[in-house]
Amino acid sequence: MNLTYRYSAIQFTHWASSSGAAAFATTYLLNKGVPSGMVGFLLALAGLCSCLSQPVLASLADRAEKFVLTKMLLIMSVLCSVCILLQLLPGISIMLMAVLYMVSIWSSDAMVSLLNAISVAYNNAGYFVDYGAARGIGAVASAVSSLIIGWVIAKFGTTWMLVLLLAARLGSMIALAGFPEIQQSRSAVSADHRSLSIGAFFGQYRWYCLSLLGIAFLGMYHAMTENYMIVIMNALGGNSSHVGVALFIAAMVAAPVIFFFEKIRKVFRDTTVLKIAAVSFFIKAVGFYFAGNIQTIYLLQFFQISSYALLAPGQVYYAKEKVRDNDMVKGQAFITAAYALGCAAGNFAGGQLLSQGAGAILLAGICMAAAGTAIVFATVTKSDFCL
Hints:
Number of helices: 17
CATH class: Mainly Alpha
Low-confidence stretches: 185-192
Mean pLDDT: 85
CATH topology: Growth Hormone, Chain: A
Largest sheet: none
Structural class: mainly alpha
Number of strands: 0
Helix content: over 70%
Oligomer: single chain
CATH superfamily: MFS general substrate transporter like domains
Radius of gyration: 20 Å
Shape: globular
Number of domains: 1
CATH architecture: Up-down Bundle
């Protein structure tokens, strides 16, 4: 059975909500009166919680006797929806609103590794899921969401942003509810092939885990520049509408690359893809620092083609290559968690540097991208064992 269309619907609705919430988090929270330092702290906390919770959720999924990924995603989606809905209540305090927004971002980010693992699990169970095509649809959703939400905020304010995010999340829940169950029991797995504990995982996959540090640094740069894009645009005379256009360009040029990623894999090894992505992030970071106008920022967003567009699907296949099937969900969780940890650190760093202006943020971004590139080149080709 071909589940690509249904899986694409989940990817579309998830990223429409998740990307919109993350991209305009700084705009939303500052607009509501949350201090800039607290904005960085809350976004970092959301990323940290995502980083810590993803391996735990993955371990539960790997060790469960029955297939539970869709149920776990539904529960997290409900939590995210409730947090968004509560922010629409009149008279809600600023800090409670900020905490609810943080929880909604955490729950959304925590779903990513489970969402990636679903495609692998259903393919292994005999279904057909084209991850690259579905993730490409998700990239289109990110583009459309960024453009629409940026325009909506500039035109009608931030409240209507929440309505759009909630609608997208409800759509994701509907798509998830219709997924078929995998009946295969996990109890039949032999003792030699049972899932490793989290501690044993680090011992078994040493080089893989070291490579995740490079992924984390790339995530740090990417999150800081995207979530504080409003600061960069303000410094160049722009506003939230310009942020929306910049994010729209990045997502739209990335979509075809992600969509046809399976064809790219036939030309380049997964490790080579990660190296290309890392170098592209570094070049983009340097370009952002020297950009003198909004149009240059728009042009630099085309580097999304060879940076995030390769990293997003590439890390899924890289994890699949480096980690055994019995640790599949955990392997996906750790690489997604590493990226989330980087995002958390990037958000925190951006919040601390906010008072020093866009220049300080962009200079820090160069350092982050350089560190990530160096570590990726040093580790991704190393092997922990022969699969």
